[in-house]
Design brief:
The structure is a single chain. The chain is of the alpha/beta class. The chain has a single domain, classed as 3-Layer(aba) Sandwich (Rossmann fold). The chain has 6 helices and 7 strands, in the order H-H-E-H-E-E-E-E-H-E-H-E-H. Strands 3-4-2-1-5-6-7 form a 7-stranded mixed sheet, sandwiched between helices. Helix 4 runs parallel beside helix 5. Pfam families: CoA_binding_2 (PF13380). InterPro entries: CoA-bd, NAD(P)-bd_dom_sf. This is CoA-binding protein.
Length: about 170
């Protein structure tokens, strides 16, 4: 199936920006399912951001890792020492309904599927159990956007200006 054909079959409607902000504000803990110790992976980048720039308790779920960023990695959501408020998922589409069921089983409040992840079966399963669901959005980007830390390159430059940037060597 082509990406275009998949796009036209999307019927699920995600939460609005204020609703996504509410989900992030209610969360105290985030479990990253599919977290990686590989610095080139998106989950690693999101994890470093959340640890450094957010108030959340962050937990990593990856049965093939012992530790990620100096913190323990757990085999499953059920193995975590807490019930995560938000389950942030970096897994292939075929795994998403299973992860959604695991999030329901542990009593999570929200299921968040990262950019490029869309699975209406997983969304229906989670919503049917009362979880908030976000798909095809990045927790890091949304958190930074709502908290004033997003620049075109994805980070805060600390500079606010309406001046056009000068290109080196030109006047």
């Amino acid at each position: 199936m082509t990406d275009t054909a998949q796009q036209t079959q999307r019927t699920w409607q995600g939460p609005s920006a204020p609703e996504r902000l509410g989900i992030l504000r209610r969360a105290r803990s985030i479990a990253i399912v599919g977290a990686s110790a590989n610095p080139t992976r998106a989950s690693y980048f999101v994890a470093t951001y959340l640890l450094a720039s957010s108030p959340y308790e962050v937990y990593f779920v990856n049965p093939r890792a012992e530790a990620i960023l100096g913190r323990p990695a757990y085999d499953s959501l059920a193995d975590l020492p807490v019930v995560p408020d938000l389950v942030d998922v970096f897994r292939k589409d075929a795994d998403l309904p299973g992860v959604a069921q695991e999030a329901v089983d542990v009593g999570a409040a929200a299921l968040w599927l990262q950019l490029g992840s869309w699975n209406e079966e997983a969304a229906a399963l989670a919503e049917g159990a009362g979880l908030d669901v976000v798909m095809d959005r990045c927790v890091k980007i949304e958190h930074a956007r709502f908290h004033g830390g997003l620049h075109l390159a994805g980070f805060n430059t600390g500079e606010i200006s309406s001046k056009k940037q000068r290109v080196s060597g030109r006047r």
